[in-house]
Amino acid sequence: MLEDIVKNIILLLDDVILCLNMLDENNFDELYPRIVLEMKEVHSIKQMLLCDYSLEVLYKYNPEFSEKTKLIKIKFDNIIKFKEREQAEILMQLQKMQNQRKLANYR
Questions:
Q1: In this predicted structure, what is the pLDDT of residue 95?
Q2: What is the distance between the alpha carbons of residues 20 and 96, in angstroms, rounded to a whole number?
Q3: C-alpha dihedral sign at 45, 51, 53, 58
Q4: Interval 7-19: pLDDT, tens
Q5: pLDDT confidence of residue 73
Q6: How far is CA 44 from the centre of its chain?
Q7: How confident is the model over 19-70, as pLDDT tens digits?
Q8: Cα distance between residue 31 and residue 85, in whole Å
Q9: Given this model, what pLDDT does residue 53 score?
Q10: What are the contacts of 87-90 at 24+ separation with CB within 8 A?
Q11: Cβ-based neighbours of 102, under 8 Å, separated by 6 or more
Q12: What is the pTM of this model?
């Protein structure tokens, strides 16, 4: 029973990692809700396991979970950093356009 639940969690985490690897601007609206839903499901299953099993039993599976969740965290962090850089670049372009418009008005 516990092994099946753990396998399900691992499959969900693997799918989240796969979706994060494929995530781009063209499929963001499709994949991001799926990622969030699967992460919520993992969290829900984890809470259920904490109610039904002792921490000692669950620590047996911790290395595999930790590795996958760390990878997911790194991938999310990379996406956020990329989007922040992208937004900063757009802001700089907007400021440049605004400055050019001011210069045109002074002439």
A1: 94
A2: 33
A3: positive
A4: 899 999 999 999 9
A5: 93
A6: 17
A7: 999 998 899 889 999 999 999 999 999 899 889 888 788 777 778 788 898 9
A8: 22
A9: 85
A10: none
A11: none
A12: 0.76
Residue 60 token pair:
């047996």
Q: How many C-alpha atoms does 55 have within 13 Å on its Cβ side?
A: 0
Give me the residue label for tokens 């984890």: 46
Neighbours of 10 (CB within 10 A): 15
Q: Which residue has the tokens 């994060």?
A: 20
The three state secondary structure string of 12-56 is HHHHHHHHHHHCCCCCHHHHHHHHHHHHHHHHHHHHHHHHHCCHH
In the block, tokens 């991001």 appear at: 32
Map tokens 């008005």 to a residue. 105
